[in-house]
Amino acid sequence: MMITLDNRETALHSMYQEHGLLQFQNLYSRQTIDKWNKLLDPIFNQRTSTSRSYVESDELLELGILSQVMVPKLLNVISVLDPCPVFFHCCCFEIEGAQKQHHKFTSRLDGWHREPSDPRKKSVRGCRPYSIYIYLSDVNDADHGSFEIIPRYHAGPLKSNLTSCNIKGRKGTCFLWNRDLYHRFNVNRSPQRQRILKLSIQTNGWENASIQLDEFKGALSILGDHNPALSYLLGSHFKNNLSIKTIPHPRTGELPQVQPIDYSEKTLIPTKAEIMFRRIKHSVDKVLGF
User: Fold this and answer.
1) What is the pTM of this model?
2) Is the dihedral of CA 52, 28, 16, 146 positive or negative?
3) How far is CA 22 from the centre of its chain?
4) How far apart are CA 282 and CA 52, in angstroms?
5) Tens digit of pLDDT for each residue in 22-54?
6) Which residues are CB-contacts of 185 (< 8 A; sequence separation ≥ 6)?
7) CA–CA separation, 126 vs 129, rounded Å?
8) What is the pLDDT of residues 187-241, one digit of tens each?
9) What is the side-by-side strand order in the sheet with 174-178?
10) What value, to the nearest 5°, has the Cα angle with vertex 248 and ends 244 and 250?
11) How far apart are CA 98 and CA 79, in angstroms?
12) What are the C-alpha distances in Å from 249 to residues 68, 80, 242, 256?
């Protein structure tokens, strides 16, 4: 049975629907983040040979991190937006430092892009798939690889002078964003690798190839019956959502405080001529092995 939203939950839902961005305050202490990093350091230290390295959901669960991520306030937010949520991403990743270009869509739009998704994939409350990011390293300015997004711009072409939000902050910064919106990581020009924990969520029952991967099956096996809500998110009822229609998480009414959105940034999109030049240069560099 789906529980009706109260006034605060309705306001949170409306804020997500309008802006497509929720930035939370004080979900995790600095001591908690430091503890997670200490557990993750030995694994990532063995995986620095690539520009982007990953620790997957089964490893996060085995380390005890994933269970600690899913605090009641975050579970409350998730169940407000979608009472039948399931992961399609659940990982921690590092981006190499001293970079000179964006890691995606470099030759075209300075890294700006939208995620491809099926427009039918909405929750029963009308919410589209979203991702939750938790910075595990300090992102003090754009050159440290800050995440940038264009809130409230759910349709239309990418162009200059759109108001965007550039999310900077200390380790522990946590935010949730609609994957339909244009977004990018700024270039990580700092000497340090940037570490981020990522959860992506969509409605259970829709096509979801990711949830059937070995890391999710392994995480379910490790978890057993100890945490029904996390089991549901990890796919325990994928393709069987009629047997339990909503996530088994009794909402407590506690919600995280949401920070005001800073719309002070403006997009600057390259011209068609610049894009064409970049494409040619990118092709030439690829042939030359740069």
Assistant:
1) 0.91
2) negative
3) 11
4) 20
5) 999 989 999 999 999 999 999 999 998 778 899
6) 95, 102, 103, 104, 111, 145, 146, 147, 148
7) 10
8) 999 999 999 999 999 999 888 999 999 999 999 999 998 899 999 999 999 876 5
9) 52-56, 85-95, 194-203, 130-135, 174-178, 21-25, 257-258
10) 135
11) 39
12) 15, 11, 16, 16
Question: Tell me, what amino acid is at 276?
Answer: M
Q: What is the dihedral of CA 91, 27, 235, 181, to 10 degrees?
A: -70
